[in-house]
Write a structure and sequence with these properties.
It is a single chain. By secondary structure, the chain is of the alpha/beta class. The protein has helices spanning 22-30, 74-87, 96-106, 113-123, 140-151, 170-180, 194-203, 212-245, 256-259, 261-293, 306-309, 316-321, 326-336, 365-371, 406-422, 449-463, 472-486; strands spanning 11-15, 51-57, 60-67, 127-133, 156-161, 183-187, 249-254, 299-302, 342-347, 358-359, 393-401, 432-435. The chain folds into 2 domains: 11-207, P-loop containing nucleotide triphosphate hydrolases (Rossmann fold); 225-486, no CATH class. It has 17 helices and 12 strands. The strands form 3 sheets. It has a 6-stranded mixed beta sheet, with helices on both faces. α8 (212-245) packs across α17 (472-486). The chain is elongated and about 105 Å long.
């Protein structure tokens, strides 16, 4: 075995022309979105030498892929191999010895440089993964490539990278590939999710029986890692919800700012804006953690306070898309008890003079449902005519919003981001922008009644600032199930 093909490590040379999706397939399969590692480009010559791309777990190399340069002159190379085969007295079709002779003859000469480099790992014993784009027409040059690869005698799998639905030349490719390769599979490098990646790795068992145990062990490691990521993400989501649902904004307020209506209104607007900005920052940090868990580095997060305060809860469309429906919310709240609007508590935390009381003039979700004529608003509305205690100022605590749908909207939002992240193939190089307008919502409406009631009870404990630790295991199990279900949507 050569250094390119180490003993005991199943190794596969990846061959394909520029624009056939070779780099995209490798990036998605290995979860690499770093241009410094795998560059995805339509420019010929981007891959000029063999690049080793290992699959590792706990520092152990389990499977090795070798990214090779594409064929530059396949027709001329095919004729050169045939000539070497005939010069050596061979008859019939050339075989591995003729390919070896070709590498020896032209290695280091600068002629057929790309062909020599891509054939070297095959000569050394690597298996083959040949990648083609089914939307491209089947030309003589591709037939020459397949013929040369067949002459190596190595186990070979062809991969149809279907970049678009029902590619024009799929049938032509399938018919021809079946004559040259042991196995033909389809794979969309721009859309493939975990299960497709797993299925592709499993296909390697059909072309490399000698390393079956190692490949099967790799798949087990892959499954364990994916489950661990899901569980880590569940912890992140629950940590965000606990922090956001129970969050209180503290602000020192001078009493002269509360004496005049216009000052009170301005203060209310400022506090309201700051509160939701902080909630948005918390979600952004949670999403950043999930992006890191799933190895995405090219994503741009768009989470602003507007994403929460801009939801019009007087529109039926909002209730259909975000959080729970009014009926679901009423049923879930029937177990835990309803709560009122956006709470603003006044305390003497900073200055020990007196006590003021501000109460948001909004109703709870359940109450609004039963009234049947208006739905709750998340904005803070400072009441006029308040009686304020005497003193130099008051330490105000704003939050948490006791609108019963607010935690569900937060959960819907972060689940939408999660689904976008796990659906993102690493082979895509365009920037992923995560914002609420572009994501699916309504996930929480699909939960079972039991799960909704359990989460509602836990949300209520978080709103009170005393998360129920006895419920943590049950809530974690629910969240893990929710994240698992999103993998199949």
């Amino acid at each position: 075995m050569s250094e390119l093909v180490p003993d005991g490590v199943p190794t596969f040379a990846v061959v394909g022309k520029v624009n056939m999706g070779k780099s995209s397939v490798l990036a998605t399969l290995l979860e690499v979105d770093d241009e410094a590692v795998i560059r995805i480009s339509s420019t010929p010559g981007e891959t000029t030498s063999c690049q080793v791309l290992p699959v590792e777990f706990d520092g152990r190399e389990m499977i090795r892929f070798i990214d090779t340069p594409g064929f530059a002159r396949p027709l001329a190379a095919m004729r050169a191999i045939q000539q070497l085969h005939e010069a050596a007295g061979g008859s019939g079709s050339p075989g591995l010895k003729a390919v070896e002779a070709f590498c020896e003859e032209y290695g280091g000469t600068g002629e057929f440089e790309d062909e020599v480099r891509l054939l070297e790992p095959l000569v050394a014993g690597a298996g083959l993964l040949y990648i083609v784009d089914a939307s491209k027409p089947l030309r003589d040059t591709f037939v020459a490539e397949m013929e040369i690869l067949r002459w190596t005698g190595r186990q070979r799998m062809a991969l149809l990278n279907e970049k678009e639905k029902d590619p024009e030349f799929r049938d032509d490719w399938k018919n021809r590939l079946g004559s040259y390769f042991n196995l033909v599979r389809t794979f969309n490098a721009h859309e493939a999710r975990f299960e497709e990646r797993r299925r592709l790795l499993k296909s390697l068992l059909e072309i490399d029986e000698d390393h079956r145990e190692t490949i099967e062990e790799t798949i087990r490691f892959l499954d364990d890692e994916w489950r661990q990521r899901r569980e880590e993400s569940a912890e992140v989501v629950l940590g965000f919800l606990e922090d956001a649902v129970g969050y209180r904004l503290e602000k020192r307020v001078e009493e002269r700012d509360l004496e005049l209506p216009h000052r009170r209104e301005k203060l209310g607007q400022e506090l309201n804006k700051r509160y939701y900005e902080e909630i948005a920052k918390k979600e952004e940090k949670a999403v950043e953690k999930i992006l890191d868990i799933y190895r995405h580095h090219l994503a741009k997060i768009e989470v602003t306070a507007t994403d929460f305060t801009g939801l019009d809860l007087e529109e039926a469309e909002t209730w259909q898309k975000w959080g729970l429906s009014r009926g679901q919310l009423a049923l879930a709240g029937g177990v835990t008890g309803g709560t009122g609007g956006l709470a603003v508590d006044a305390a003497t935390g900073f200055l020990s003079h007196g006590l003021g009381a501000l109460v948001g003039a909004v109703g709870g979700a359940a109450a609004a449902f039963w009234k049947g004529n208006e739905l709750p608003d998340l904005a803070l509305d400072l009441q006029k005519g308040m009686k304020l205690a005497q003193g130099e100022g008051t330490a105000m605590r704003l939050g948490p919003p006791k609108n019963e749908n607010f935690p569900w909207i937060l959960l819907d939002a972060v689940l939408g981001h999660y689904q976008a992240i796990i659906s993102r193939a690493h082979g895509k190089r365009e920037e992923l922008v995560l914002d609420h307008d572009k994501m699916n919502a309504g996930v929480v409406q699909k939960l079972s009644g039991d799960d909704r009631r359990t989460l509602q009870k836990w949300f209520l404990s978080c709103q009170k600032g005393r998360p129920d630790r006895a419920m943590e295991r049950e809530v974690f199990a629910i969240m893990s199930r929710i994240l698992s279900s999103l993998e199949d949507d």
